[in-house]
Design a protein that fits this description.
60s Ribosomal Protein L30, Chain: A, 6-stranded mixed β-sheet, Phosphoribosyl-aminoimidazole Synthetase, Chain A, domain 2, alpha+beta, 7-stranded mixed β-sheet, single chain, 16 helices
Length: 474
Amino acid sequence: MKDLGGGGLSCAISEIAYSLSIGIELDVNSVHTREQDMNIDEIMISESQERMLIITDKTKLKKLEEICKKFRIKCSVIGKVTSNQIMLVKKGARTFAKLPTSVVVNAPLLDRPSTTPKYLQKIQNEKKFKPTKDLSNILLKMLSSPNLADKNWVYSQFDHEVGIRTVVKPGYDASVLRLDNGKFLAAKIDGNPKQCYLNPRDGAIGCFEEACRNVICTGARPIGMVDHLQFGNPEDPEIFWTFLESLKGLTDFAKYFKIPCVGGKVSFYNETPKGPIKPSPLIGVLGLIEKKPLLPRIISKNDLVLLIGNTKNELGGSEYFEYIHNFVGGRCPVVDFKTSKMNMNAVLELIEKNLIKVAHDCSKGGIAIAISELCMQNKIGCYIGLEKIPAEKLSEDRSLFSESHSRYLLAIERKNLKKIQSFLERKAITYDIIGKFIGDQIIFQKNSRPIIKLSVDMTRQSWMKSLGELVLHG
């Protein structure tokens, strides 16, 4: 079985035939189409979505057709397997293409030149900003920004209940589907063009790890990834360099964590008259849950907030820099592979031990956004002490909005605290209890001095409505 992606039938036929050391004879008259009078080249290179190419035998064909009919999926027998390793494309009795599959698949490799982009010489230097005073207003503004606002306006327009197997719905760290064998599958896609613009290698690794963190928060262990690599013109040596660096980063992370890349897509030449897009790899991660997922539970009064991971001075490419200071620059966060793996395994084990109510990754917007999301989703306030956050010596705004990787927020019951602490200390995990859930205000303080104080209701209204209002009314 092979999906029809770039190049349509022409690529799918040749690739699957070459990989199996077979030939395929195809009649385009047998290919069902949505439009009439399509030319043979249009049929062969069309990239219409949601299509699969299947090779089966005559004894299984009837059963396969019955399955397709059951799910109202149209299928057609479009050709047959041969033993000559030739790709033969016909229209009725007339032959339009006859080529060895090895020739079609093994296109000449291009050794394109690559050069470190000149913009990197300056953009990684941080600007000096004026001290921020009203952090409450800044947090409210950030929660209303397009990248951080609630995406309900988007996903509520689509049917995410197809097959009635969605266990954890959109809006949480990752979605979870029930499988027929009693296991569960978690899925999440992440990307961060700003950080990939500053450092294509570390930025791509960050996207990969963020997607892993999200499926981890459901209790799933990452088992595979797919990518969609979107870049500008690869004939530009600087753009091609960013593409190569992204690939190197993704390869290194995948090998270290033993997560196979099971599919992907590359999209080049994404440009406008103003210039190319930022390097934009999107990473999708699938995670497998053997027994049961961590289902979202209601956070209650006096539940504790535990933070796993270290907060560093890593705001390069952050939402805070862009939306508050109108600056895209600095050094992007870097993933420490060893620490990342330790933290992932620790969170998974705590979930398996049923010691966690809620797990939430800390990513875009930093701790301030992650904690606010938990409060808004559960309609409960919190007291958070910045001095408790495991971190370098940072200013208040940097502690709140740093986007360091490998961090997890856990909502836990007080009765489980000693067991969790004992486990984390035994595993040498960096962590601390940074606050508790209580009241109806989101409060961040430092040494008992309030820094941020916002009503949960007001914050939630702004967070939930801002994206829809932006799209509908500009």
